[in-house]
Design a protein that fits this description.
2 copies of one chain form a homodimer. Helices cover 40% and strands 19% of the residues of chain A. By secondary structure, chain A is of the alpha/beta class. Chain A has 2 domains: 266 residues, Alpha-Beta Barrel (TIM Barrel); 87 residues, no CATH class. In chain A, strands 4-5-6-10-11-12-13-14 form an 8-stranded parallel β-barrel, surrounded by 4 helices. In chain A, helix 11 packs antiparallel against helix 14.
Chain lengths: 378, 378
Amino acid sequence: MTCPIPFSVEARHGAARAGVLRAARGEIRTPVFMPVGTQGAIRTLSPLHLASTGSQVILANTYHLHQRPGEDLVEKHGGLHKMMGVDLPILTDSGGFQVFSLKKKRVEEQGVTFSYEVDGRRTFLSPEISMAIQQKLGADIAMVFDECLPHGVDRAYAEDSVGRTTRWELRSKQAHTRPDQSLFGIVQGGFWPDLRRRSIEEICGIGFDGYAIGGLSVGEGHRKMCEVLDYTVGYMPDDHPRYLMGVGRPLDLVEGVARGVDMFDCVIQTRHARSGMFYTTPGRLRVTDRRYRRDMYPVDTSCDCYTCTTFTRAYLHHLFRVGEVLGATLATIHNLHWFAGFMARMRQSIVDGTFEAFRAEVHEAYPEKGSKRSQSKG
Amino acid sequence: MTCPIPFSVEARHGAARAGVLRAARGEIRTPVFMPVGTQGAIRTLSPLHLASTGSQVILANTYHLHQRPGEDLVEKHGGLHKMMGVDLPILTDSGGFQVFSLKKKRVEEQGVTFSYEVDGRRTFLSPEISMAIQQKLGADIAMVFDECLPHGVDRAYAEDSVGRTTRWELRSKQAHTRPDQSLFGIVQGGFWPDLRRRSIEEICGIGFDGYAIGGLSVGEGHRKMCEVLDYTVGYMPDDHPRYLMGVGRPLDLVEGVARGVDMFDCVIQTRHARSGMFYTTPGRLRVTDRRYRRDMYPVDTSCDCYTCTTFTRAYLHHLFRVGEVLGATLATIHNLHWFAGFMARMRQSIVDGTFEAFRAEVHEAYPEKGSKRSQSKG
């Protein structure tokens, strides 16, 4: 079967790659950051504004959409794109990450039983069910159903889990029949190099259209994340896209790319926006800070997003101060636009051979937490 | 001094008029409904979406903007339009209505002292201060500072108040010096025909660019409102715009227009939107109702707004159900678009001589509360 979204690498700088995913709904130039629309919408953002941010692909959550409004209703719309009014490519996760972050659940070979957090309803998810849901949601890229290992499990559990994840991914592939939808595998293995290696071998043995690194962004910290990438990414197939799940801080992005990752998703861009935190090239800016009360500059003087070309910091400060939700919308527009531009500049630096200079700038503006305090800048 | 916004009547049907206000920022075709942007923003709505609703002029609240962010900051931006990123004409109220709806206040000849509801700060407003604030806000139309009589005051107080309001309006006019800003007077007089008549004579004696009817929308009900209009509007100058403040239900709009009113403002369009209440030609539709859970139609099949041309009732139902604020934004877009279209159709019916048929339709779709229950329709 041919892959519905062909991938090619156009330029390299060390392990970093500039690639292209040729999706039917549009080319995705990698490295790419994917904003998250958890419940069938990028929070506070209309598709009209989303289109202006330069985002190339967005993520939607199978777990949440399965609960509300349910995949049957999405299918009735003709899929997520039609329901949400979004023309961009969409990737759906498998529900694995959400389910495994729940406290009350029972993991068995067949699948996972848990209570839905909103109404306590008993729910069962398995590779087959996740595939059925994702095929109805109709995203361009679906993810296999895996077990996302929490930070801190013991070696014996991790070994069991890696084997189970392999079996679940095989079942995912067997259950996946939608020819216009890519299916990505997920590498697990926690913080054991040999388990990561074993997972890669087993998952690649099954064969997918792309490969994700799961089990990170679980509180391990930047250094530990880099360490895992160091003993994982290089062993993943070079001719397929590599996707680091749930990761999206600027420093994590540039270090992920430096190690050969192509795709990322994260909620901080939109979540931080809703609290008035703006990302800019010199560093983060908390517009709710009193110092911006009378500041007549745009948040980012070099930014050409709708927010920065239309409004002042003082006005945005005012909107957040009076609790006007338009402030959250305008911050979301800026942050998504900024991250799209950030990834585009990173890509260009790979093409131009200036990636190391770009990487150094990111370390300056977005230093590792704790190593040096990140400061809001004016 | 010439009026900065000339007004002319282009067609009549009985007392109803189709007119034009020629503002520097664009023609305002009357009768017109003005959405309210209380705190320097139409809640949940970016100017980009506002522009798509067909709204011709919006209202901003002097009282709220004086408190936060303060008129000096607005002036520093070059006025409200620049701060808000809105090119449409703007009208600012005088603060009178908000102040007089506060419980704790002291009314004296010089002005009103009250505590700001958010932080308890002691504040003083007078005709001179209101004019100074509004001139800094820089709207196209400013309103005189008046005393808005609450429903239920006695005759003696009302007589005193009408006299005071006249003196305050004279002081407003004397304090108003901005040549590019229209100034509208406000007729008070409560529910006494002779006091309304006296107020009209005194206010018109001062002379303003337009005349508003104040003191309604204070809980008096539709019939009482019509009664007041019956003994008020006909005595107001025919060659100036007439503005009924704080009124905007469909039935109130059509009955106001039938009596010769040209301008209206109201918060229900945006407030109801935020609770999932959509206005449509056959009647209101509460999209949060369970019956719309799987409904694949747009809210209003005959509507060409962004919301109705992009999303289904089922999707909007979902957004409200999961508490996603995008639902409020999309409902606000629809409601403002619908009311703009409603007023445009009403205007056309005046031009075409079919106003009575239009009026009858409105009574059918939006009957008087209590006389017959208004029902959500599918």
